[in-house]
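Team,

Forwarding the record for the chain on the shared tracking sheet. I've put the sequence and predicted structure together so nobody has to dig through attachments.
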Amino acid sequence: MSRNYFQDYFGFSKKEINGIFVLLLILFILILIPYCYQPEVRSNPAELAQFKREIAEFEQSVKSDRAYSYRDIPLAKPKSKSRPAYFEFNPNELSAADWKKLGLSDKQILVIQNYQAKGGKFYKNEDLKKIYVISSEQYQQLEPYIRIDSKKSITSKHEIAYSKIIVDLNQTDSTELQNIRGIGPAFASRIIRYRDRLGGFYSLEQLREVYGVDSAKCSQWKLQLKITKEWKKIAINTATFEELKRHPYLNYKQINAIINYRKQHGPFRDLRDLMPIALLNAEILRKLEPYLSF
């Protein structure tokens, strides 16, 4: 009974045994294939020789016992600064290129040119030393070559434009304005344009309203300016929008407010009638008052 039980569970039929042999044969063939089939590799002799040379060069470079160091990098040579070429000069008449020849930097030249543009003059040798960008050592090198004409210097101190000439601000032109110390073509043009928009200045303090004019410039210029001519006034009860918009003290909203208020309440009798207009504060009315006629 036990024998039959063993055969039932562990015995193989004839077909199963044949299948096992076929499977083993296939496995055996698969194992032998890599050993039996070895494709012939043909190498190009020229390529092989090139490959060997590259290997030799690489090995030679590896054998080099000289380690790389940052010291191997050649240092850049500092740019040689051109030596100053000294010559006799008048600092009041020197161009930027000539200052450069004397060894001054672009920054130093710019400071000197700004000083001269504002009316600065060199009346004696020591005046150059007062320019803060000129060191005492540099001044000592330049001083033997400075030549300032004493006659021109005296004249410069008492130049016509800077010596008690008074210009009427409301009657002058841009050319005459440039006789005022510190007023160049740009400032003269701005002042004239602003005066025309105002209709004339009623106070020298109004110069501070010109773009670029600070209190220091205004104080300096007032010494040589005056106002005698009457300025143009605005007929506030008949002025149109186009007439009012030319004035620098009023913007579009304020002009519309004035015209609408005038239509609703009738003509203005004096400045107090303008006070109820919310867009016109006390400061604007104070500035406008000299220009209004009722």
